[in-house]
Design a protein that fits this description.
Helix content: 25-40%
Pfam family, one: DUF4880
Protein name: Iron dicitrate transport regulator FecR
Number of helices: 9
Largest sheet: 13 strands, mixed
GO molecular function: sigma factor antagonist activity
Organism: Methylomonas methanica
Structural class: alpha+beta
Number of strands: 18
Number of domains: 3
Keywords: Membrane, Transmembrane, Transmembrane helix
Shape: globular
């Protein structure tokens, strides 16, 4: 399937999910039903996309389905209470749909004004004004500021590898929340999810720092090549030895993970997929696995997983569920 066909299918899936959420919200009138009927009659692909979403509710295990129905009923009750007080305006209806869509297409709404960004599944490389290169991984956004005193990158979210051009007069700094990593001619990776992250040093030396709890002081840690430093919103970790071949495998289109729980593998794979994978079995989630996956071939990996771990793959619309 080419990129245009894939994008068209994803758009239809997005629309089908939004329609299903809207039709099962408990606040549907004749005008909504007529609008849905017009959408569905646009073609057989529209009808199939909606059937796929409906199939999800039929195939989900009963406990999960019951929980989702309970949550949906609570949301519908709250929504009806709000609408009863304020009245349903076009803007309100649009915002409700936007919230539903954001759950499946978060990257379209995150940091839309960033200087550079990639969407889910995309990767790109950018040559900065100073000659440094920023390699952006999936679902990543950065802002760039280069002036006479400093080269500053703000990693808003995601993951990037920086190949820094040497310039002793202009420090190269990557800011992630309160943590800043500084380098002078080096190659390193920074990952950040908005709350926590990690710095992995491939070559050279870097120093990561952040304000301490006392405010006037600064916590900092220097990394040597082959080390990784984790950080949170509250603290810096200590440098640890990293598996560099795994840390930058995404630059070669691969995911490599050794002896990690399956839930961690799924979380990593989901960074590259719009069709998110969900684990429905706690025991299965904790099972340790080793993986070597082509980022563009995660569907093939799912098929192989059914045979190697004897699990059931439930695929419907924009979601995939794994169950033992």
């Amino acid at each position: 399937m080419n990129q245009a066909s894939l994008a068209h299918r994803e758009t239809l899936q997005q629309q089908a999910v939004a329609w299903h959420a809207r039709l099962t919200s408990g606040a549907v009138d004749d005008s909504v039903l007529s609008e849905f009927d017009r959408w569905r009659r646009q073609g057989p692909e529209h009808q199939q996309a909606y059937r796929d979403v409906e199939a999800l509710w039929q195939q989900l295990p009963l406990p999960l389905l019951a929980d989702r129905q309970r949550r949906r009923a609570l949301v519908a009750k709250q929504r009806r209470a709000v609408l009863a007080r304020r009245g349903l305006s076009v803007a309100a209806a649009a915002s409700l749909l936007l919230a539903v869509m954001a759950g499946f297409y978060p990257d379209y709404l995150q940091h839309p004004l960033a200087d550079y960004r990639t969407r889910i599944g995309e990767q790109t490389s950018i040559t900065l004004a100073d000659g440094s290169i920023a390699h952006l991984n999936t679902d990543t956004a950065i802002d760039v500021s280069i002036n006479g005193n400093e080269r500053r990158i703000e990693l808003l979210r995601g993951e990037a590898e920086f190949d820094v051009a040497h310039d002793a007069d202009k420090p190269f700094r990557v800011a992630t929340g309160a943590t800043t990593t500084e380098a002078l001619g080096t190659r390193f990776i920074v990952r950040y999810d908005g709350k926590a992250g990690a710095v992995t040093l491939l070559q050279g030396r870097v120093r990561s720092s952040r304000p301490s709890a006392q405010g006037a002081q600064t916590d900092s840690a220097a990394l040597q090549a082959g080390q990784q430093l984790a950080f949170t919103a509250d603290r810096l970790g200590t440098p640890q030895t990293a598996e560099l071949s795994n840390a930058d495998a995404w630059r070669r289109g691969r995911l490599l993970m050794n002896f990690v729980p399956l839930k961690q593998v799924i979380a990593e794979i989901n960074r590259y997929r719009r069709s998110q994978i969900r684990l429905l079995d706690d025991k299965l989630a904790e099972r340790e696995v080793n993986i070597a996956i082509d980022i563009k071939q995660t569907d093939a990996w799912l098929k192989a997983l059914q045979q190697t771990l004897s699990i059931k793959v439930i695929e419907a619309g924009p979601l995939v569920f794994l169950q033992s």
